[in-house]
Amino acid sequence: MGENIDDLKRFSVFDSESVLIHLDQSNQVHFTPAQIQIFDKVADTINKLEGKLGNDKNARRKGNPFQTMFLDGVDSETAEFCRAISASTKAEDFLKHANFNPETDDLAIAKLQKKIDEKKRLDIPKKKAQLAADRKTLGALKASLQNVIDHFTDDESQEINQLIKDILERKKIIRGLSVKTFDDGIFKTIGSHEWKALISAAKELYEREKAANEGKEPEHCLLCHQKLTGEAKSLFQKYWEFLESKAESELRQLTRQQSSLLQDLQSLKTTYPKFLDTDAGIKQLHEEDSKYLEQLKSEFNTLEGILDEWITNIGQLKAVSRSEDPEIDLERIESIIAAKNEEESKLIDPSEEIRKLTAKQNALKHKKEATTVKDAALEYIAYLQWDSKADQVNFAGIKQATTRKRTEAFSIAVAKNYQEMFNQELSKLDCDFNLVMRTSGVYGSTVKEYRLDFAQSYSPSQILSEGEQNACSLADFLTEAQLDKNNCGIAFDDPVSSLDHERKDKIAKRLAEEAGQRQVVVLTHDIVFMSQLVRHAGDNDIPTIAHWMRTVSGIPGCIEEESSPKLSTLKKLKNDSQEAVRNYDSLGPKEQEIKLGVALDYLRSACESLIEELLFAKTIQRYDDHIKVQSLEEAIFDQDLALKIVDLHGRISEMILAHNRSDLKRENPFDIKDLKTLRNEFNELERDLNDAKKSALIERAKRKEEKKSKQKGW
What we know:
There is one protein chain. This protein is mainly alpha-helical. The protein is built from 25 helices and eight strands. It has helices at residues 6-9, 18-23, 37-60, 77-83, 91-95, 102-121, 124-149, 154-176, 193-212, 230-244, 247-270, 280-288, 290-315, 331-345, 351-372, 374-391, 395-428, 466-483, 501-514, 527-539, 570-580, 589-615, 639-655, 663-667, 672-712; strands spanning 11-14, 27-29, 435-442, 445-452, 489-493, 519-523, 548-552, 555-560. The protein has a three-stranded parallel β-sheet. A three-stranded antiparallel β-sheet has the order 2-4-3. The chain is flat.
């Protein structure tokens, strides 16, 4: 904010972020005696030497000639050595890897390449891969053929025939107990759901009646109560057998098994081996044993006819037979697979031999590459060795020694003065926490940090409460401000956050004292703290100006000059109410309504001030924690006057803009005449209160005189 304003540059600011900066962090204070500056010159000379050596390093710097070499991922002893070159590398060791002889070594590389090519032409990996692929295709062919054969075993045919037999038996039982056997033509609902429910209920009732008669069979019909004949009893018995029969559910289960079996055989029919010449397994078997392949084709054609016959018989619930099944042997395929496996095991892979030959060839090639950059590599090794020696110059140690000597001189010339002033500030703010300041001097500044003498391994923020941290940091801030002769003002942003009441008051008193030396600006939400500032400033005859900052119409930071609640006295509120309607007649209707509302608002606040300043005689003041008991003698104990304040305050409250007005009041809005009437009532009430206050003062004077007379013995 003040980058381009010189006066603002001379202000110091203390806010919430300043707390840890002053308390925990090492920070600089820019003041240093002249006799300490010799150390700064020494430090400057050291920096120049360090810079010159850095420049020499840049001038002598050599590039690594191997940076773009050996990037093909191929390793060799030479490649590993060149990648690891450092300041400890000896030139004679490098020359052992840069001794390539073109006359003999180029010929050796060519011979090695010839041997590698001969080994690669054998193509053993490809042959092994082909044999493995042949075994896999033949194995898949055998598995598919075996799957077909497994469907035509003795166990399979027996299970199918048993299923057909069970289905036929269940159907026979169902025919004997079918609903039709009960159909005598009398009722048309025989077999319906309701009919079955009826005989089920009759069965249950029958069993209960039998149990009630100690197991004796009922002799009468449960519905018509007629005596049961033998024929009727037989019919009922047949009903019960019908209900208890499981043949229908069992038949449904067997039928589902039949459908599943047919579906499986139909699926087998769909995927039945076609023995196509394009199939990899068939093609491979044809190459190995074409006669055997023809035999398989014939046998599986016969088996396919049997499959069709089985599908038909099962669908017609006829028994199936294996009497014409061919005996199919797949062991020949297994023997071919075993032969190919043995053939693969006899092939010797030359990969390891090729790897060894290639490693020898790469070693020669890498030596050839290293030899081509031999001179540049020797220069690079020499540079690394010089640079390593240059790095051994310990400028940091020299700087530390200089700093130690500077600190010793500084502690005598500066730190003691700062420490004394800081301790005074701590005492004024009641911060007796044994806070120790450590100081040192670095390049024209004072570097300081704080620790508690009983816990120096911890920062103060880890020990002290938030309020105590604020107070200690404020003491440090005020010390810096006093030592900085260029400072003309200080600004505080909420300096009493998290502080207790007593320390707030001490800080308010200290800031009021500081305001006698320079301008002090305080931003705070704490109105009690503001009242303390005003009180202490008044005690020191220092003028105080307070402004109210708030959000208006959604816009934050709007400032109302000299409008702080603490400084809004009865006199000022009356004046503000009058000023609000200045030039009232020249305003439009909407502006008149707003201005009138503001004037009423001020007048209502003035009513509240009547209570504080006159009725209670300032015994209890807003935003002040002190109760002035002695002022109670001036208080006005008049219920009628108090009720008049309540009445006037209530009528003004109904008129201000803070309330939603009724339709009647909107049609008959208040005007300036109403304000004048209320103001006249207010003035009259104020006069009455002042008269009552005068009477109270007269009474107090009388009491004092009487008290003095009694003390003198008159």
